[in-house]
């Protein structure tokens, strides 16, 4: 066996060869035909990962709640922002699948595709009618302004008598 794989000999596909190109898939057994109907499909798992992989930061400033979502490769027309029941912020959209041609040979598919959805329960002190959103360089920023805290009212009371 050569110390430099593929240089003097043929590339081995053995599990015991540390230089093998094959990668062990611990979930390969779950793809057996008799198990396919028992669990979620790979498409479902890929769609679920698209939802889970939509990363969002939420910070609160004295003036607003600010949400930032990484949505690389999406246009603003492909993203939908809604406020439901005056307290649920919903960010959704769909990341399309790469166009496949019959002559293409894929080596790796890691980018997620499919629909994504994130929901956040907003606090009571927000102005949902003034929500603003902007998309720049694949980062969606949603700003939800806060209501100004109620000012304490001072009332003079006259002393009778």
Automatic annotation (TrEMBL):
Keyword Zinc in record: no
One protein family per Pfam: HSP20
Domain SHSP: residue ranges: 47-161
The keyword Calcium is assigned to this record: no
CS domain: residues covered: 51-155
UniProt entry keywords in alphabetical sequence: Stress response
InterPro entries: A-crystallin/Hsp20_dom (IPR002068), CS_dom (IPR007052), HSP20-like_chaperone (IPR008978), Small_HSP (IPR031107)
Protein family per UniProt: Belongs to the small heat shock protein (HSP20) family.
Protein name: SHSP domain-containing protein
Annotated source species: Araucaria cunninghamii (Hoop pine)
